[in-house]
Structures
1.
Amino acid sequence: MNEVLRTILERRSIRSYKPDTVAKEDIETVLQAALHAPSGAGAEPWHLTVITRLDVIERFDARARAAMAESGVERVEALGKSPQYRVFFGAPVVILICGEKVLRKPGRHLSALADCCAAIQNMTLAAASIGLGSCWIGLVRYLFEREPSFMAPEGYEALFALALGHPGEAPEARSRRREGTIVWVE
Ligand SMILES: Cc1cc2nc3c(=O)[nH]c(=O)nc-3n(C[C@H](O)[C@H](O)[C@H](O)COP(=O)(O)O)c2cc1C
């Protein structure tokens, strides 16, 4: 099996991180992968904010937990209120992914979310390929629902975050459900 396929099949979400800082060139490698994601009509409608300041990450985490705790969704509220839970699992790097606002450019309104997701997936794979761990964080949406422009540049809305760092755990590759997911027309 080639290395790309091995990385795809073995990548796991990492929810425990060593406190060690991540070399800037490794973060740059991960960012470069994001910028090479497929993008509808070549719009590249993403904006990435790389946060390595631990006090900023901690404030971001606390605000996301506070929004989760008031979400009205039982399971999410319980997580947000749990004293042990950290949205970014103590990762030393958090990347905020923002997408160009819908309808800002005619014909591009459907692509920002899809393109940003492709960019995030590229980052998770690039990170895994150089021995870093990452976790795609969607639960920040409870904060972004309240504050769509949270840390976003003008014209963009906050969509997701990615926790990134040296892994503090090594979960096994996992098999996936296949039944009912693939149909061949041949
Ligand atoms: C859109 C999206 C949002 C996610 N949000 C979270 C999150 O907020 N917190 C978390 O711990 N994992 C989150 N994940 C990671 C998934 O839980 C994880 O990918 C899934 O359980 C499969 O496990 P694996 O990534 O280890 O293969 C998210 C994944 C995606 C694609």
2.
Amino acid sequence: MKKSCAKIGLILAFICLIFTGLLKWHKSVFLDELPEYKRTALEVMRQPLEDRKICVTRSKMTVEFPASFMLVAAMNPCPCGHYGEDNPAHPCTCTPAQIHRYMGRISGPLLDRIDIQCDIQAVPYTMLKETTPSENSASIRERVVRARQIQQQRFAAYNVTAQKPIHCNAQMTPKAVREYCQLDAQCDRLLSHAMDKLGLSARAYDRVLKVARTIADLAGAENINSAHLMEAISYRNMDRADWI
Ligand SMILES: [Zn+2]
């Protein structure tokens, strides 16, 4: 009995250490080569990604720990890394079965909880030589800070009576999404079409709206327009049927 209590205590202390130390400050977690992690380890992230907390239940008690963090992950499209590339010098050498097995290590429910999924193509040589200046990090930071200020102002009234205050778009509840991400008729038709075409889930629907709201905030726009919405839909890259 003593041994079991000590083990539970050790586990809770470890979780405490991680989620009050590492994640308390809304840190980012970067997982490179995502499919190389054990599937069981990846699946336990589903609850904190959804609820921003972790519940540890034992026979006599349940303890909740805050776990609000940003997950950033990277992966190749196949084990050799060249599937989908238009490069005869590096053809993909994987079999369809290998590609499916590799991609299958990331479950649909986990993918569903990732707001932005981008398929990044290799940069062609002509673009590497490009000398046209692009937006620098300092000005991007300014836009992000402005967008966060817009979000703080947006939720100020909501937070007066809310049980759980909202500080940014990602933390919106489904009810808040309905209130703050309203679409006009054109956007509504567009999203309805995308939902059918891409087979998006209800969870993905809310996440698309939150991302569209953030894109609109970054652009300083009061309302979500079709360009913001289309960009947000384009970030559901791995929901597409032609992904593999
Ligand atoms: Zn390959």
